[in-house]
Each structure stands twice: as structure tokens, then as C-alpha cells.
Amino acid sequence: MHPISTLELAQWDTPLESTPAAEATLELERGKVLFMPRLAFALSQSESRFLSPDWLEGSAKNVSFDPRTDKIAHTSASAGDRVALAAMMSRFAQQARRLITNVCPHYGDDLSPGLTSFRPVQTSGRMTSPKKDDTRVHIDAFASRPNQGRRILRVFSNVNPRGEPRIWEIGETFDAMADRFAPRIARQAPGSAWLLEKLHITKGRRSAYDHVMLRLHDTAKLDVGYQRATVKTRFEFPAQSTWMVFTDRVMHAALAGQFLLEQTFYLPVAAMLDERYSPLRILEDIYQRQLA
Ligand code: SIN
Ligand code: FE
Q1: Is residue 82 part of a domain?
Q2: Whether the predicted model's global pTM rises above the 0.90 cut
Q3: Atom 6, ligand 1: which residue's CA is nearest?
Q4: What is the domain extent for residue 266?
Q5: Considering only CA atoms, which residue is closest to atom 8 of ligand 1?
Q6: How many domains does the chain have?
Q7: Which residues, judged by CB distance below 6 Å to any ligand atom, belong to the binding site of ligand 1?
């Protein structure tokens, strides 16, 4: 099965007919990347000044924006620049929301927005710790924001002004990866979730699900032999294209590229068309116990 499915959408707010929408939603749930080669996020002439790593604050790798509070963070921009950069990210958040509403109308109000991120740094050759190295295939799991089984659905737009693609690799299926690594994962230590919350290391309680997902993320990234040998499909997302994917299920790595906008959404598994495809249910099947 090729991991990419193409959708010829050219507008952010054109609703799909109900049958193609249900088909697209199921493809996403089954682990495909939905690629929209003709859907570009347009920057205005004056916004193109933001296409530079200079707007990052300190050692930050991305500027973040919270569409729920309109707060922007990790940027050196001040005054009018800060307002304009926030407006650009807010517009991306709104368009990403419209896109998901049109492609996955079934999810409706069950879909809640997370953070918006702007990534103006070249991904290749960046020095990071192995666990933070996104050039290694992984599923997304958040160390400080437990999500108790909720899905992570992300919309990405490559806004590179020089026509450079964002290059990804897609790894094996979630089922295969989980069968390989899940049996090796030790149980969460008793009391540890309570302590992490108490010390404000996590925002909320880290569930057994969050524990397993984080361990899967780390174990796969740290296994150099696995990284070398696992079958990967390389794909180049061209400049001015958009794609969406459940990154908690699809093994992915970003090898190269600069200037990306990304919007995260959360979805309760009960809102899926078929929750058997969720990492939560797959892992509960493997462990034969409730995880969230
Ligand atoms: C990731 O989610 O691993 C990184 C995606 C990207 O920056 O292209
Ligand atoms: Fe990732």
C-alpha cells in the first residue's frame, strides 16, 4: 500500500461531497497521508518578510501560536511585526480548520484545535538529541501534554519561497511497529503519573496510553538498527502544497525542507468513523487491558 493519497483540492473552503469526504476520512484513519498538491497557503507580499529564521527567539526551532487565546510565542518579533506574524498564523489556523471541516465533516465539533507552528529552520543537518531528531521515523507523542487516547491530526503547508520541497520518509504500519516494540515496553511506574503532574512536568495526568506512546516514540528513534533497516517510502511535498495526516499513527520522518506551517488538532477516538484504527484500540488489543 502506498502511504500517500492525493486529493485534487485547490481551495481551503470547498466542501467535498459526502461520499468522497467519507472515503478521504477513512483513508486518513487507516494511516494514509492525504496530499493536496494544488492547495497552497498564500502569503501576502508583506508577509513574505517572515520567511527567515531571524524571527525565532533564542534557540527556538519554531514560532508557536495558540488559536484559542491568540497568543504567539518563541518569536523575536515585536510591535507591528508581532501582530502581523500572529495574524498570518491565525489565518493558517482558520484555513486548516476549514479544510478539515470540509474533508472530514463527520468529526464536526469533536475536533479541537491545538497549537499552530511556523518552522523557518532548515530541517536537515540540525543538531539535536536522538529523541528530538525528527529525521528518524517516529509516531508523534507529547511528553508534556498527555492526551489520554485522543488522536493527533495535523495539517502541514510547505511555504518555501524558493520552490524547495519538504522531504519525508514514511515508515512501516503502526500495527507492525507496535507488534515489534510494544512487548518490550515496561509498565508505567506506580505513582509516576501523579508525580509528573504534581511537578508540572506534564499538563494533566499521563495515562497508560501516553506512557506507551512516548516509549514507542523513543524506542523506535533510539534503535539505530531499526532506523537503518526498516522499509521507508520517501516523498517530496512540493513548495506550495498541503497535506494532512494522523501523526500518532503514521511513522514519519522529516529529512529536509525549510519554511513550514503546521496546525495540530485533537480528536476523541469515539468521534472516528472507525475507532479500531486508533493507536489506543490497537494497543489495548495487544496488551489486553484498558489504557485510557
Ligand atoms: C515531524 O512531525 O516529525 C516533523 C514534520 C516536519 O517538520 O516536516
Ligand atoms: Fe513527528
Answers
A1: yes
A2: yes
A3: 254
A4: 14-286
A5: 254
A6: 1
A7: 119, 123, 134, 140, 166, 247, 252, 254, 260
